[in-house]
Each structure stands twice: as C-alpha cells, then as structure tokens.
Amino acid sequence: MRGRRHPGRRPGRGAETAGAVVRAVSAPLFLRLFITPEPIDGEVADQTARAVLAAVDAGAYVAE
Description:
Blueprint: H1 18-35, H2 42-57
Helix pairs in contact: 1-2
C-alpha cells in the first residue's frame, strides 16, 4: 500500500494499525477455512480485500 493515498485519513490523526488490518483481512478467510464448510475462492478473497480497503480509506483503522 506504499504510495497509496488515504482520503479518509487526516494528517496528524494517526495511522492504520498494521495488526488490525491484517486481522480484518484474515478473519473471514480463517473462518471459512477452519469453521465453515464454505470454500475460499478468488471472489471471496477479492471481496474481503475490497471491504478492508474501504474501511482503511474511511479511517476505521486509526491509532490515536
């Protein structure tokens, strides 16, 4: 994500916490892998990535 602009983040307000972003991406995939019988396919991975990127852009993962 280097060089990517984050319109939802205001300068001086903190930055995304890497651990929270990694957990947000991996949680739905781990759920499917270990808990439910649903398969992990490219669409699920893409949907998860899009949702997390939208949350990052909205400022959901900000350390104050």
